[in-house]
Amino acid sequence: MNIENFEQCLARLMKEYKISYSELTSILNYKSKNTLHRVVTGESGYKSRVKIFNDIISNDNLKFSKEDLEDLEQALLISKIGTGKFEAMEEMRNLLRRKEKTTEDIYITDIQTNKIISLDTFIDSLKNSVNDILIINCCWSAVSNSMTKLMDASPKTNITQYMVLTSKMAKTVSTIGNILPMVHYKGYMGYSSTTKDNGDPFPSALRYNLIAIRSKEENGKMSGYQIILHNENEGYITTEGYNLFDYWDEITKKEVDNMLQIKTSYPHSDTADEYLKFTEMYSKMEFNNAIYTYKPDICFNYINTQITKAAFIDGITGLGAGGLISEKLIKKLEEVHEKRYTNIFTKKKVTQHVCTAKGLKNFAETGILSDHFFAMRPYTLKERIEIFKNILDQEENNPHFNIHLLKDDNGFIEMEAICFENIGVDFTSMNTDYKLTEGHTEAIVRQKEFLELYIEYFTGELLRKDVRPSNETIAFLKQLIAQMEKSL
Q: What's the pTM value of the predicted model, to 2 decimals?
């Protein structure tokens, strides 16, 4: 990507199109070429740049291409927010929008034999073993790809990762994006440390890019490996016994109390008590809080309590568990959901929800949410009509609730993200069924700078560039309702 500020971009375009200051001054009907000269030399303020940009895009005598004007608009934004913030915003866009990403493998040299092997090949060789893996930093997509493949092949693999999130937000957002594929595996746990604002160094144990492995083969033999990565392309490996894992495990555990746990895991139990705690946790995060949601369809707490209760009772009855849950517990679940439902539509803090036409249409047709709770039956057609009518009413009449349709359905990532202001951004696998016995987990990034950037990107670039106008969303909701009513 070519990153230029406004004056650099304008100067480049003038050079490419062989336009002098005098010529451009005449085309734009300016009295003096000094106006342009001050912009190109960086002497004028942001308002002057905005004026020139608007004059350029509205002038039919200039032959700049569509791509040139897009470059100029991007450059104007860079002049406003700075290169560092712009790069961070682009990483946030990459995080939330599906993008084909090519990953080059990392090659490691065995210091005993001097042989070179790819990290992916080496990690794949562990798939028939029981592995404990400790990762310090190494937040590159090639590492994440290798580890996810290993956890697929060897479900008993346990991975603990310690990482430093720096004040360089572009790097931090990239780090979060790279590790997310690992986070939702049962065997993964991650911790993050943030460099202090006063410049104090982070603990020496976290200065490395290191992977320590303790591996137990099928015959019971124990092996140990230590991999040090110089960068995202190369490193070296040593096999000096599994005691190296214990050494690094002891050092890093001393830092846990000063770190934030990225992953939220739950007891591997599907009891109603555990789900009560689960929904109470969400209720606390949502209460009177601004919420920014990125999800293909709607959220569970947008559905009224009567409909939710009926779907739950029928669902647990169908699973043969109806008699195992007390009326008292059902009443408590009902109270918590009512609190969540009331809060989302009556709080005086915004709820901004970005979804897809495809996701809403699928829910309208099936009654199954992308993250449908396994113990609930699909919503009936009559229930869906009522649900969508309420969403439409809130969109039209509630100034604190807005639902937005993405322009491009196919750009949606395979993950949902919900930001709770002043708390964190919760990333959840899009197709989860919340079954705790199967290791349902979530990743909550609590770093203040990441949280602020997410909200700034969401309310700025995402809502300004990537979503359809409100009238199109309203028309689409009405169309879905009409189609469902026709099917009654």
A: 0.85
